[in-house]
């Protein structure tokens, strides 16, 4: 595994950890996929509300991740 791949793996782990400890998002952690593509964090999956989707970016920033984030999460009730 290259240094870049290791950094990306650690970043994904930090993001997943922050989502799993967030009071509002933890119930949906398993429904979210976090990957790094072309130096950007990409979020995919489904959440039941726009409010939860909006909480993702601040949660990622709390993990110390300053990379570009593509929030592709779908909202479905």
Structure description:
- The protein has helices at 3-21, 50-62, and strands at residues 32-37, 40-47, 68-71, 74-75.
- The chain has a single domain (3-75), classed as Alpha-Beta Plaits, CATH 3.30.70.
- It starts with a helix and ends with a strand.
- It has 77 residues and is an alpha/beta fold.
- Strands 1, 2, 3 and 4 form a 4-stranded mixed β-sheet that branches.
List keywords for this structure.
single chain, 77 residues, alpha/beta, Alpha-Beta Plaits, 4-stranded mixed sheet, 2 helices, 4 strands, BON domain-containing protein, BON_dom
Unreliable stretches, pLDDT < 50, 5 or more residues? none
Residues in helices, as a percent range:
40-55%
Strand content: 25-35%
The CATH class turns out to be: Alpha Beta
Largest sheet: 4 strands, mixed
CATH topology term: Alpha-Beta Plaits
Number of domains: 1
- The structural class is alpha/beta
Shape: globular
Order of helices and strands: HEEHEE
Number of helices: 2
Taking the alpha carbons of the first and last residues, their distance comes to 39 Å
Q: How large, in whole angstroms, is the Cα Rg?
A: 12 Å
Number of beta-strand segments: 4
Summed over residues and divided by their number, the pLDDT gives a mean of 95
The CATH architecture can be given as 2-Layer Sandwich
Organism: Stieleria marina
Protein name: BON domain-containing protein
Domain BON: 7-77
């Amino acid at each position: 595994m290259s240094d870049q791949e290791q950094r990306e793996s650690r970043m994904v782990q930090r993001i997943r950890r922050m989502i799993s400890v967030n009071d509002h998002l933890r119930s949906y952690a398993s429904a979210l996929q976090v990957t790094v593509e072309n130096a950007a964090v990409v979020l995919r999956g489904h959440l039941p509300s726009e409010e939860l989707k909006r909480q993702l970016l601040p949660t990622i920033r709390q993990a110390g991740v300053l990379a570009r984030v593509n929030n592709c999460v779908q909202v479905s009730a």
